[in-house]
Amino acid sequence: MSGVTLTKVVKRYGAMQVIHGVDLEIAPGEFCVFAGPSGCGKSTLLRMIAGLEETSEGQIRIGGRDVTHVDAADRGIAMVFQTYALYPHMTVEENMGFGLRMKSMGFGMRVKSADKAAIKSKVDEVAKILKLEPYMSRKPKSLSGGQRQRVAIGRALVRDPEVFLFDEPLSNLDAELRVDMRVEIARLHSEIGATMIYVTHDQVEAMTLADKIVVLRAGVIEQAGSPMDIYTDPNNKFVAGFIGSPSMNFLSADAASGRANCPALAGYDINAPQSASGDILVGIRPEHLQVDTGGKGLTVDFVERLGGVTYIYAAAKNNERLIIEHKSPETPKSGDEVGVRFKAEDVYVFDAKSNERIR
Hints:
The protein is α+β, with helices and mostly antiparallel strands and 359 residues long. The protein is built from eight helices and 20 strands. The chain is globular, with a radius of gyration of 25 Å.
């Protein structure tokens, strides 16, 4: 396994710059997830590491080796794409072993018998890991979406790459299959311990799979860290709002002398850092709020029941809205007036202009 280091990496398309001086260290064996909304640059950055996009400036190193201008085939990486990209006329076994056969053949030569045996042994080994043995003689059209994606992963795995790259590999699967494949990929990483870089816009995938999450916006790293570090200690409003589902509530307020005056939560005692002054935003996650049926100040707009959890959408008197996670069997109805309870330590404060966190 090898680590990956990006140093002041820049990508331009003509006069348009889309990646802005990215610095990043991915440790050997680490599962790193690039997360962010569409257009943030996460797939472009992954393709630069893969060698599928040229690097305009900066340096990319894999295992300590400078690969900035090395061809994709010589970087020691294997990539799994959003589309399965399987050969429809080949069986599962043939698809998985295709890359190894091409490498063995060289310039138009036949695959040697010894190489055939080695390729089959490697393909069988990977098929066992991915539980694909019953499907080896099938062709892609007779496989489910999840099985096809496992074949695509298997084709990458047989190559023993230094680094695995995944570009939104689960986005074409339905919700149930996505959950199953997340488990498969997490188990695979645990078993083989390889360095993996994974692109997704789904923050649930990021939180459940990653050792390290890199949150990107407009070609810039907003924050990088462990999933819980990102969740509990966001650097700015963007990161706080992107990680967590439903998103964090943000309410307008003003601060002075360590206190926050928040019109949406009028009458509530809210602390603010001593350094905070003037216009701020108060952030509270839905799961950190509790409904107070005996309280006042919020009017229930809508109740969303999801079985094990209920989300209450409520409006304050200044028309700002909150989402409250609710687990009690007694649920207020639309039109009811309620209050909320929360702990002081669960309140985040952000500068209203810069959106940076105030600690």
